[in-house]
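Input chain follows. Return structure tokens only.
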Amino acid sequence: MRVFKYLFFALLFLIIGFYAYGLFLLKDEVTVSRETTIDRPVKVVYKTVNSMHNFNQWSPWPKMDPDAEFTFQGPETGVGSQMTWSGNQSIGSGVQTIVETVENKLVKTKTVFKSKDNAVSHTTYRLTPIDEDTTKVEWIYETDFDGDILGRYVGSMLDGMLGPQYEQGLQKLKEVVESQPEYDFSAVSEDTTANQNILFIPIEVNSQSEISGQLSSAFNQIMMFMERNQLEAATSPMAIYQQVGADVEGGFGSWRIDAAIGVNVNGLSGVTGELQLGQLAGGQVVKYEQLGSYSQAEKSYEVIDAYLQEHGLVATGAPWEVYINDPSQVSEAELVTHIYQPVKTVQ
């Protein structure tokens, strides 16, 4: 009996000690933090982390359950961007939502763990530019056990449990961001153009290799008409890309292009056949100054697209190219092409 008595008091002291330690020495609020540096400007890192739709590109958890289901709701980026997941015991289930952003400084999310009685935690990505091309990223987890003694004990182990996963995630985030192409925007500018009357000939080709010859022929027709009617050019020759060839079922789609030259007239007589008088609408544009071969246009448009995405702009109409100098008069390396893309600011 005495042995049982000792065991009873020993167990009682253990329980009292357990709760006393948890109550007085352990904290409700627990923070786990890890950091890394990424060799990219802060705006590039911010763009990547400011979307729950991108989260699984660097998250350490999907590989813990390849069969987990992920769905995405809300906007692609910013406050309201949301991910819902359901997986095995290792990752559980829940909803994570971006609830606060400060451009190029932080992104904060709220996570509700459905598999843990709707426990709530907050995660913050804090971004600090070290220089123009390097960013410090802190991944910070915060939770509050609100007086739950057992939870406090779990919290005391969170750094060891969660820290290594954050380190893996940050390493993957670094790889993802640093693998993204870097674009030189020095040749890109924003401008506003005025309405411009044009003489134009619509052309349609089924192969990109046909474009140069067709444009040259159309420009010659327009210039001959202008010479006969003693009209002066208001612009250099230009090509307005109404439809760009794209992959379609069974082959490659056609290109529809207006070969055009600007003129300062409001009406014309004697315009027949393919030749037409129209107007190139003015407005907000992004302009790219291309130097060199016409064949680099695809890369030029890639830079324009990257600029639009990074600066919150969307294309609103057909782009056009203005051929500033004559390829028969200058070397290929000296060719100058101005590319214009009509745009508007994303609301």
